Amino acid sequence: xxxxxxxxxxxxxxxxxxxxxxxxxxxxxxxxxxxxxxxxxxxxxxxxxxxxxxxxxxxxxxxxxxxxxxxxxxxxxxxxxxxxxxxxxxxxxxxxxxxxxxxxxxxxxxxxxxxxxxxxxxxxxxxxxxxxxxxxxxxxxxxxxxxxxxxxxxxxxxxxxxxxxxxxxxxxxxxxxxxxxxxxxxxxxxxxxxxxxxxxxxxxxxxxxxxxxxxxxxxxxxxxxxxxxxxxxxxxxxxxxxxxxxxxxxxxxxxxxxxxxxxxxxxxxxxxxxxxxxxxxxxxxxxxxxx
Length: 291
Prior knowledge:
Elements: E1 2-4, H1 8-15, H2 28-38, H3 40-60, H4 71-83, H5 86-118, H6 120-134, H7 138-149, H8 153-177, H9 181-189, H10 194-232, H11 237-246, H12 250-282, E2 286-288
Antiparallel strand pairs: 1-2
Helix pairs in contact: 2-3, 2-12, 4-12, 5-6, 5-8, 5-10, 5-11, 7-8, 7-10, 8-10, 10-11, 10-12, 11-12
Protein name: ABC transporter permease
Domain ABC transmembrane type-1: 91-276
Pfam families: BPD_transp_1
């Protein structure tokens, strides 16, 4: 349950000059340790069940070993790839490409999201086009992107930027639409300028949409990255999986799948979700009762 942050109790504290302490931001490693301490069973049990079923199916020999290998074999292959330095290098390449593409996509998405969401004329003109391109999947762009930029890092980056941008724009517009009208009327009655209304009403009000759009966009961008690496990449986790497929090395295909799942789970649970919660509460948009 939530209430508006500008409640009398909070206003009284601010009027009294009390400055709430700023919590120290925990590192991802500390967040992981805290998560395991708070919810060890809820966090690890689903993975343990999946791995257990996987091991049983593999041991029963239902599928040929050339098609399906057990978790022990996959773990041995992963250790070997780490020991030879192949897997760390590929992970670094994939994360670097995602970071570059996401940075451009987030910058473009935030700017266009606020422009479209705050100007009804721009929105009326751009919204049909926005929905049109949103419906075109990232893989559908790969052929034309390869023609334009070849088998290069630029092609991968363009696909990631495209995939991140559109969900973010739509989420920001939805967040701006969800701002209560009484907040805008209150700002106008207090004589707030357009810039002050933007920074103190629209920006905080759109933060839930921004946070949701970032999480959704990065999720799509991560999948687009892997697809691009499989088709046009020369390194990265996606390339490793495709190269293993060509060699008939099923264990390294499973290694790539496991790495992709673990990396995204850690990114979302330890970075994106805490950042979303911290950002919204810091801007004073939502206050949880009984906190």
